[in-house]
């Protein structure tokens, strides 16, 4: 804060362009939240007719996209909302943001001219209507690119080698396989695309009025960047599409300045002309910043549309499961992460079917049922899952003669559970899977502590199950949107690095005063009792056995 006191009276504006909404958080120079706002895609922009912010292909191809222009119009609406609330844009010293990771935007030849000459009398939507070659951006939920993902892995020397280079084996939702699909199936569209942005760099481009670079942390979610060199990987580029490097543009550190805010925003909303736009990054990297995750044994669990679990590391060892990204607030460090597609929307599905569409009833069922669920185990995949790689489907089992010891016991598949057991089977299943895979991935067991964030971290009953299953204290931050908060913090960080002319550790900004800021976390639930934690460990083994059988039977490689 010593550093930030130089910027007294300044605001730092952070956005989060996520799957279901665009959020904004504003921090002052004491790192206190002074404003926040939300645009919910389905309800605030109903004319796009999205469901959960997306379009799902009903044919079952796995294609999942969002209308690019909806993200543009959401920004118009967000700025109008802030304006109507008399927000003083002139005080904003720096802006940054988060994007849902992996999603991509395709700018038509000539669009950079439109971007650089935005007319402040007109909306962004009005001016960018014809700026894209592809109107529906593929997003992280898409799993329609298995052929392309395999071809890229093969051309790069196999899945493990691709992981070694880019931090992740090939994944359908990653931007490289998505670009390859467009090149392979619509080469003329690829040719008429002058720039490919990812969601984060796309939104940053609107703010600077020109194409913004892709930052190193979010760039690692493309299967295209060499994570050690932090440059585009030649072999991955060649495996994906010809002439790709020039369409991707440069890479930049997350703490770099993307440019001054475009005059459009100065004239239309009265931003200060010296306001800087700091590189945007992925929502997960920004959450890591917003949660001030800086101790190796701490684990963050984000319960948004996707569920993610991540931590920092100095020495990453990328393998066939999980992802390695550069740490957005540590020039040398990395973050490691596991991602589940069946997060909040699958919990909502069970809530709607079994708990009268109410979180209160859902929680009552969690409280009514016993931990370990009397040996009832469920696997709920409303979307194709990433971990394990299983298609859509629900699988339920009951362990026969269930008792404390599971040795030698057999499970039996069943059609359904009573509603309270279904709710518990879902929640225990999600977090047993997370614990098992996190341990396998080398995450600490038990973690020193867990910091929970994302929409569902507001639910204390869910946090209680996490504490019992992982066997550690669970903390929460003041607001569940750590991605836009982290973006606001990074806006301040980027500005300070810029003023100093070199990278400064982010901890220097808050020193030992975190608890006085809106970044402070507090204990939400104590660790579960250790006997229960070890019982969960044995049921977790059983669960992995069943999971392995399911993968053998239905899984994809
Ligand atoms: P994203 O940033 O990916 O769009 P959010 O982090 O905003 O998602 O989380 C939105 C989700 O939060 C909703 O889909 C909803 O299911 C979940 N959520 C909100 N409140 C609760 C609650 N009390 N219990 C469980 N889940 C909740
Ligand atoms: C991360 C991922 C999701 C999206 C959701 O790899 O696919 O967490 O970032 O916004």
Automatic annotation (TrEMBL):
It is an enzyme of class 2 (transferase). InterPro entries: ATPase_NBD (IPR043129), D-XK_euk (IPR042024), FGGY_C (IPR018485), FGGY_N (IPR018484). It catalyses: D-xylulose + ATP = D-xylulose 5-phosphate + ADP + H(+). Residues 11-288 form the Carbohydrate kinase FGGY N-terminal domain. GO terms for molecular function: ATP binding; D-xylulokinase activity. Pfam families: FGGY_C, FGGY_N. GO terms for cellular component: cytosol. Keywords: ATP-binding, Carbohydrate metabolism, Kinase, Nucleotide-binding, Transferase, Xylose metabolism. Residues 299-494 form the Carbohydrate kinase FGGY C-terminal domain. SUPFAM superfamilies: Actin-like ATPase domain. One of its GO terms (biological process) is D-xylose metabolic process. Its EC number is 2.7.1.17. Mediates 1-deoxy-D-xylulose (DX) phosphorylation in the cytoplasm prior to the translocation of 1-deoxy-D-xylulose 5-phosphate into plastids. Can also phosphorylate D-xylulose (Xyl). Uses preferentially ATP as cosubstrate. Belongs to the FGGY kinase family. This is Xylulose kinase. The lineage of its organism: Eukaryota, Viridiplantae, Streptophyta, Embryophyta, Tracheophyta.
